[in-house]
Amino acid sequence: MMLTAEQILAAHKANVETLFGLTNKAFEGVEKLVELNLQVAKTALSEAADTTAAALSVKDAQELLSLQAALLQPTAEKAASYSRHIYDIASATGSEVAKVAEAQFADAQKKFTAVVDSAAKNAPAGTENAVALVKSAVAAANNAFESVQKATKQAVEVAEANFQAATSQAVKATQTAARASSKRAAA
C-alpha cells in the first residue's frame, strides 16, 4: 500500500499543527512561571519592607529573637508553597504534552495496523508465516509501549507523592524549629 501525495501532505499538516499546539502549551507553562515569579517578587518586596520596619523597632535582643522565630515559619511555608506551584505548573504542562504524544502514537499505531492488515490481505500465497511474524512483532511492540507507558505513569505518581511528603516534612520541621526558638526567646 503506497501513500498518496494527499496522504503525505495531510500527515505533514497534522504534524505541523501538533508541533504548534505543543509549542503553545510550553509557552503557557512559561507564562504561568513568569506570573508566579512576579507575584512572589512583589510579595517578597512588600514583606521585606515590613520586616525591616519591624526589625528597626526592636528594643532588645529578646524581642529580636522573638521576631526572628515569628518570621522563620511563614518563610518555610511560602518556600514550600512556591515549590508546589512550580511542580504543579511543570506537571500540568508535562501532562498536556503526554496526552498529545499518546494521541499521536495511538493514531500512528492505528494507521500502521491498517497498513499491516492490508498487506496481509494482499500477501501472495505461501507468505502466511511471514505475515503472522510481522503481526506478532507489531503486537509485541504495542504491548511493550503500553507497559512503558504504565510504568512511567506509576513513576510520576510515586514522584508526586514523594514530593508532597518531603514538602510537608520540611514545613513541619520548620514549625518545630520555630517553636523551639520561640521558647528559647521567651525563657
From TrEMBL:
- Alphabetical list of InterPro entries matching this protein: Phasin, Phasin_subfam-1
Q: Which residues form the Phasin domain?
A: 6-105
Q: Which domain of life is it from?
A: Bacteria
Question: Per its UniProt record, what NCBIfam families does this chain match?
Answer: phasin
This chain's protein is named Phasin family protein
